[in-house]
Amino acid sequence: MERPVISCDTNVMGGTPVFTGTRVPVQTLLDYLEAGESIDDFLEGFPSVGREQIIAFLEQAKDRLVAAVA
C-alpha cells in the first residue's frame, strides 16, 4: 500500500494537515505558491519534505478538483 502524502494526527501540530513524516503544514506550501515562490524555494526552507511529496499532493489536489467540477 502506498504511503499517504498528507496526514492529520492530533498529536502532530494539533491535527493540522501536514506532509506525512514531517511537521510541515500543507498550508505552508500553498502560502508559498500563492506568494509566487517556487517549489524549489519551499524545499530549501523545508528540507524534510520531498519533491515527490509535493508533486503527489498537487496531483491529488488537481484530480479532486477536476472530479468535483465534472
Topology record:
Blueprint: E1 6-7, E2 18-19, H1 26-34, H2 39-45, H3 51-69
Antiparallel strand pairs: 1-2
Protein name: DUF433 domain-containing protein
Pfam families: DUF433 (PF04255)
- Report the average pLDDT across residues: 94
CATH superfamily: Winged helix-like DNA-binding domain superfamily/Winged helix DNA-binding domain
Report on the biggest sheet. Answer: 2 strands, antiparallel
Helicity level, as a percent range? Answer: 40-55%
Distance between the termini: 28 Å
CATH A-level architecture: Orthogonal Bundle
Percent in strands: 5-15%
What strand line-up does the widest sheet have?
Answer: 1-2
Protein name: DUF433 domain-containing protein
InterPro entries: DUF433, Homeodomain-like_sf, WH-like_DNA-bd_sf
Pfam families: DUF433
Task: Report what the structure shows.
The chain is mainly alpha-helical and 70 residues long. It has a single domain (6-69), classed as Arc Repressor Mutant, subunit A. The protein is built from 3 helices and 2 strands, in the order ββααα. A two-stranded antiparallel ribbon has the order 1-2. It is globular. Pfam families: DUF433.
Task: Label this structure with key terms.
single chain, 70 residues, mainly alpha, Arc Repressor Mutant, subunit A, 3 helices, 6% strand, globular
Compose a concise summary of this entry.
By secondary structure, the protein is mostly helical.
